[in-house]
Amino acid sequence: PWLDQIYVEYQERLFILSNQPLSLREIYLHQHYPKLQFIKGVVKKPYPDGLAFIQEKTHVASEHILFCDDRLFTGILAAEIAQVPALWITRPIRNFNNRFWHELFYTALRYIERNFLRIAT
Questions:
Q1: What pLDDT was estimated at residue 16?
Q2: What is the rounded distance in angstroms from the CA atom of residue 50 to the CA atom of residue 115?
Q3: What pLDDT shows up at residue 94?
Q4: Mind listing the pLDDT tens digit for each residue in 37-71?
Q5: How does pLDDT run across 6-21, given as a tens digit for each residue?
Q6: Sign of the torsion formed by the C-alpha atoms of 40, 113, 79 and 95
Q7: How many CB atoms lie within 10 A of CB 93?
């Protein structure tokens, strides 16, 4: 529901920057959000190349971009490097029924990231 609301207002300026783009996800999103743009051909996060590409394409200053990601050591770190405000998604939607091992792996990584942050601060 939140993507539906945002899409109405910002459909020309919404981007997906994924280190592991899934073709099924891309097909689904293109069917439901045809103006959503996928960033491809850039160095993976945490390198800020994808965010720099978005800035160049939209001519929007970094402080006026909001980057949302569920990984601290990739996406949120890329936003920090690019000096782009970030929203850390701490409870992403997961699909253990269809992708059990994949989801378990990333759930473990997120757990490690959260605990690292607690220890470091």
A1: 95
A2: 27
A3: 92
A4: 999 999 999 999 999 999 999 999 999 999 999 99
A5: 999 999 899 999 998 8
A6: positive
A7: 6
CA–CA separation, 34 vs 49, rounded Å? 24
Contact 82, 51 (CB under 8 A): yes
Classify the C-alpha dihedral 29-92-72-21 as positive or negative: negative
Residue tagged 């020309």 (tokens): 12
Q: How far apart are CA 68 and CA 51, in angstroms?
A: 11
CA-to-CA dists, residue 49 to 2, 56, 116, angstroms: 26, 10, 25
Burial 3-35 (b: 16+ CB within 10 A, else e): eeeebeeeeeeebebbeeeeeeeeeebeeebee
How far is residue 48's CA from residue 35's CA, in Å, rounded to a whole number? 23
